[in-house]
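Much of the work behind modern protein science is quiet bookkeeping, done one molecule at a time. Below is the pair of lines this work produces for a single protein:

***
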Amino acid sequence: MRVLRLSDIISSTRGKLLNRNVRTNGFLIKHISTDTRSLKKGDLFVALKGANFDGHKFIPQAQKREASSVIVSVKPAQLSAKAPIIKVSDTTRALGDIARFYRRLVGAKIIAITGSNGKTTTKEMIYHILSKCGYKTVRSPKSFNNAVGVPLTMFSIDSSHKYAIFEVGTNHPGEIAYLAGIIRPDIAVITNIGASHLDGLGSLKAVAREKASLLKSLGKNGIAIIPSHNKLLAPYLKKAPYKIVTIPPAKAKASSGGFRFKFGPILRMGHPIIGSPRTSRCPSGGERGKHQGYLPVMGACNISNAMAALVTVRALGINIKKAINALKSFHLPPMRMEKESAGGVTFINDAYNSNPQSASAIINEIKSIKAKGRKILVFGSMNELGSYSKKYHAGIADEIISARPDAVLAVGEETRITAQRVYEKFPRTGKIVLSYFSSAAQAGDYLGSYLKKGDMVILKGSRAVGLEETLKRAKRALIRK
């Protein structure tokens, strides 16, 4: 992190210094913390307050660890004689205000990624390519994609970094626009538009509108990277002042636990031409003709993530052949098509999160996945679908039936209708074993007793369902056998 003056902190947050007797001239901030467990001597502590926590309770610990200063929204009972205490109306907003100010000091090229699926994987692919090509790069840790994670990622950028990659999430209207105002990216990537966070956003059109708000933060020299043939985004691209690059399709074929893929030239829409057949090839440098590569991960959906990553790094000027070669050593983040084994059983854990689009993708993988024994789908609820929940949980049953797993374990209240629809299609025929469980723990206990050597288990569900518990219990039971 670059050093900030305390006066910059106060002015950017429009805060009020409570203990005016404390010296602030020449006062410098070298690090910002929101967690007293990792806070170090000299850090600025921001006391965040949420629905289930209140950082103000930890101000004594912050002062004991010698925090240099504290930002609060509630005046403490006692004011420090040494550490400046700055009062603001909202500490989370203040964190964002500081990050917005800090962005002005950042020299790195900034990439921001949003989308209904594939944000984290695309981010990691871009980071992997840039790192392999020798560029020092910052990226959002894990899924730091909200009003706290984005500022903390911003503060991790220093003068040595060439690039920084932000993941941008949302679950209510206006969240992406707010975060984009902090990030102000040079390149904005939208991986796809799907049925995600419908309880907060309301409809697919609203999802597209929310995702497209990331593009509003681009300047005239900015680049928008978007899915090809996505009509939902079209209304938000008219008269755009920035360049637009569409993510090209790729042909892929399963090979050696991954995929070999081919694609044609990356095309750039005119500046600024939207919805027009007039396109031009990106600059030279191995760009002409077709390209082919190998991605050593499971999941055909990851080919589209790889294409988004390749287009992004090409927009940064990275040689396309070097970028493709870098992907040969890429590994997926945890709980994304993560392969594990125990007791002769293979588990594919894709349960970091779920929505209709990502669930459909993994269910369709069942047909092509090879297994010595039975194929078992553990299907957890797809959360945050609001009034559309029943429709999507019922509709996915047809895809499960088409995939022909040997057994289905439905987990979570919302999957009751999924199990019911699958049962109605196969009533007592013995073609599919079907079970319903209200909790991940129950499913895990049953699964552990049901599994045999050679079986393959595919787990997919929203993170709140906790299918990692199902996996843990099943593996523990297998080890005991």
Notes: The longest strand covers residues 109-114. The chain has three domains: 4-89, 106-329, 338-480. Confidence is low (pLDDT under 50) at residues 269-287. Residues 338-480 form a domain with the Protein-Tyrosine Phosphatase; Chain A fold (CATH 3.90.190.20).
